[in-house]
Amino acid sequence: MQPINLTSALAAGKDLVAKVQTASGVDVKACYQCGKCSAGCPVAFAMDYTPRQVMRMLQLGLAEETIKSRAIWLCAQCETCSARCPRSLEPAKVMEALRIEAKRAGFEADDEIATFNEKFLRSVASNGRVFEAGLIVGYNMATVQPLKDAGVAPSMLAKGKLKLFPSKIRGRDVINRMFTKAEKMEADNK
Amino acid sequence: MRKVGVFVCHCGSNIAGTVDVEKVAQEAAKFPNVVFATDYKYMCSEPGQQVIKDAIKEHNLDRVVVASCSPRMHEPTFRRCIQTGGLNPYLLEMANIREHCSWVHPDKAKGTVKAIDLVRKAAAKVVKNEPLQKSSINITKRALVIGGGIAGIQVALDIADAGFPVTIVEKEPTIGGRMAQIDKTFPTLDCSACILTPKMVDAAQHPNIEIISYAEVDKVEGYVGNFDITIRKKARSVDMNKCTGCGTCWEKCPTKVDSEFDMQLGKRKAIYTPFPQAVPNKPVIDREHCLKFKTGKCGICEKVCPTGAVDFTMEDELITQQYGAIVVATGFDQFDHSVYGEYGYGKYPDVITGLHFERLVNASGPTMGKIKRPSDHKVPETVVFIKCVGSRDEAKGKTYCSRTCCMYTAKHATLMAEKVKGSKSYIFYMDVRTPGKGYEEFYKRTQGEYGAQYIRGRVSKVYPKGDKLVVRGEDSLLGRPVEIEADMVVLASAMVARSDAGDLARTLGISYDKDNFFTEAHPKLRPVETHTAGVFLAGACQGPKDIPDSVAQAGAAAAKAIGLLAKSQMETEATVSQVDESRCSGCLLCKSICPYKAIDVKIIAERVGGKTVERQVASVNKSLCQGCGACTVACRAGSLNLLGFTNEQILAEVEAVCL
């Protein structure tokens, strides 16, 4: 394992860490690395870096490694970490801020995650809410695994957990305005 | 015309770094009445003081201004200095150009202007200063110790050995405190009771010590040297003079109550002593649970008592006594972990705290020293210890480190290994802090010889699974989540201030911090004094502390109290309130407002229109007055004036700065 040159790492990562701190409102230096976030995280098992390690990397200026990580995309934003953090920090917000920075820098660790996010948002944009059946079919087709969830569909349909047709909400124009605004903000930021 | 000398201190670079001290001295020389001004590197040093003394002689000075640090620090120094220089010590004024100026202003130009203003103010005031004389009062040679834990007992023994009478007021029915609940003591593993109970007995048998248990301090009046203390002796329902402590009453009592001493893990009776070695070993009746008080029936204890000591009609008794010094040693409470949903809101019976564990492992505890978990009394094989519960947690607990938990958790793991062969202890920690004599070695033995598994990380969740508790944490050195299926979980709960600490602080007039621990007068140099003269601190009421530190602090507090009581007389402040009788209307608003009972009525005779008329005016007892100034504010006629801070002096300062 190569040693990390901390002097240059801190200097190189400074701007990105500052951006993440401003966007998330979290002072990453305040983290004392207890690991309570990672212990309670329901998806930590699948992460390449635990939430605590992500915080540590930011403390050391290794910001670019964090935005290239898979961990930030796996975070489900359940906010268990934020609720339990003894220093009242919010790792979930840091994860979110890192995702924004990752997207801006053109890093998306995983095509599947990017595809899912894209399909999810498109479903919300056209219906005003998620149409689950459409989302799953669209996602599975796009990722070339058409029959992945087919087995559970009948019983979910039977129990009314899944609908065959999308239910569209009223006031979709409001949702559209939100999307337009978000896209504009995104463009402005670039 | 007055002759004022101004002396500006550099305080090394503390002042000179941000204030142009030479310029301050040059400007000061131009102020009215100032005949001499100079600056020096350290005014408080021997040669610095010599500069002042020489100048007094050479320039025939009759007033002195020292521009340096806060008067809190060096006013006594410079008062002594000008006194040896031949002036009355009260002809000194200090301009605080350090705390009030150089330390808080980064800009040297602005800092210099402010420093000049502060000196101008002091020079204007000092012209109006008059020579003042101190008076003296007698000291009541008796000490009050509030709290009868190990700290309070040690304080009482030390003061009593020095020959002064001491009263211990203890809230519980017995002295002994937390140390009596503890099983073994780190790092030597000697039995806590074995080293504590002899001290309890020493205290009880000492001719100079009076123990008033089951009592609280109700009211504190007076001041250093002469506190008037009202003690509330709670209705014990047992006559202490008649009771022999034979124990027949609590054997026969039919009501069982969860024992506070055993952390609700065992039972006591409604008439009880908390533990067998209690001092005094005489019971109290818990009226909340006693059948006689609840239903009017029963009264068995009264019937079986061979000496007729049980008295259901007893009432709270108030006694008032005078004391010269007070030592507060009220100890600590344990943090309530029910705020942690992730640890079960305090509802899982097998998630216990450190003090619970002490009772479970103690030979006279509810399980006779056999470690059994509370839910099903099974002997736990796998025990997880979680440190920093409530400590170092600003979100749900306290910001501070409780100091004792690292060591007592290591001790618990050691006792587990000794008592339950083949058991395994896992300890979740964030840091291991062992800064005491023999502490690090003890911790190493716990890891090595006793095989405790230390895991660096904070536990995120504890949840039941069958008859086990699953503990989830991250091994942060490995960077991977870990899980342990445990039989019992022990939380190293934080030490927190007593829930009523704030009330007691207000009764005593002492200050307390954000966490309700009592505040010492100086964190380094006056660790056992409070800001209220004559009130001292010992033990964990001042902050988390282990037994060795509590005992050491108790000795220090005792030494301070003895130093006070050993004086035959005490000098009082010269800056006291003074009545201008010709202007006093005798309304006596000041009398009702004075916190030190220093103001009384006086009848004076006046000649009005050729006739002699008698009328009442206020009169200040100079020995009792503490110079707080409350009366001068209350006085409608402006006839009260605080010497050293007279209206004329204050106005001179205001004029110097504002005009």
Write the layout of secondary structure elements.
The complex is a heterodimer of chains A (190) and B (659).
Chain A: H1 6-24, H2 36-40, H3 51-59, H4 63-67, H5 71-74, H6 80-84, H7 91-104, H8 111-127, H9 132-142, H10 153-158, H11 172-189
Chain B: E1 4-9, H1 21-28, E2 34-40, H2 46-59, E3 63-68, H3 71-84, E4 92-96, H4 98-102, H5 108-126, E5 136-138, E6 143-146, H6 150-161, E7 166-169, E8 184-185, E9 190-191, H7 192-205, E10 209-212, E11 215-223, E12 226-233, H8 248-252, E13 256-258, E14 267-269, E15 271-272, E16 284-285, H9 291-295, H10 300-304, E17 317-323, E18 325-328, E19 332-334, E20 351-353, H11 354-361, E21 382-389, H12 405-419, E22 424-429, H13 439-447, E23 453-456, E24 459-465, E25 468-475, E26 480-486, E27 488-493, E28 495-497, H14 501-508, E29 535-537, H15 547-565, E30 569-571, E31 577-579, H16 589-593, E32 599-608, E33 611-620, H17 630-634, E34 640-642, H18 647-658
Parallel strand pairs in B: 1-2, 1-3, 3-4, 6-7, 6-18, 7-10, 18-29, 20-27, 21-22, 21-27, 22-23
Antiparallel strand pairs in B: 5-30, 8-9, 11-12, 12-17, 13-14, 15-16, 19-28, 24-25, 25-26, 31-34, 32-33
Can you walk me through this structure?
The complex is a heterodimer of chains A (190) and B (659). Chain A has 190 residues and is mainly alpha-helical. Chain A has two domains: 6-104, Fumarate Reductase Iron-sulfur Protein, Chain B, domain 2; 111-189, no CATH class. In chain A, 59% of the residues lie in helices and 0% in strands. Chain A has eleven helices and no strands. In chain A, 28% of the residues are buried. Chain B has 659 residues and is α/β, with parallel strands linked by helices. Chain B folds into five domains: 4-126, Rossmann fold (3-Layer(aba) Sandwich); 136-234 and 316-331 and 498-570, FAD/NAD(P)-binding domain (3-Layer(bba) Sandwich); 235-315, Alpha-Beta Plaits; 338-495, 3-Layer(bba) Sandwich (FAD/NAD(P)-binding domain); 577-643, 2-Layer Sandwich (Alpha-Beta Plaits), CATH 3.30.70.20. In chain B, the strands form twelve sheets. Chain B has a five-stranded parallel beta sheet with strand order 10-7-6-18-29. Chain B has a five-stranded parallel beta sheet with strand order 20-27-21-22-23. In chain B, helix 2 packs across helix 3 (71-84), helix 6 runs parallel beside helix 15 and helix 12 packs across helix 13. Chains A and B meet through helix 2 of A and strand 24, strand 25 and strand 26 of B.
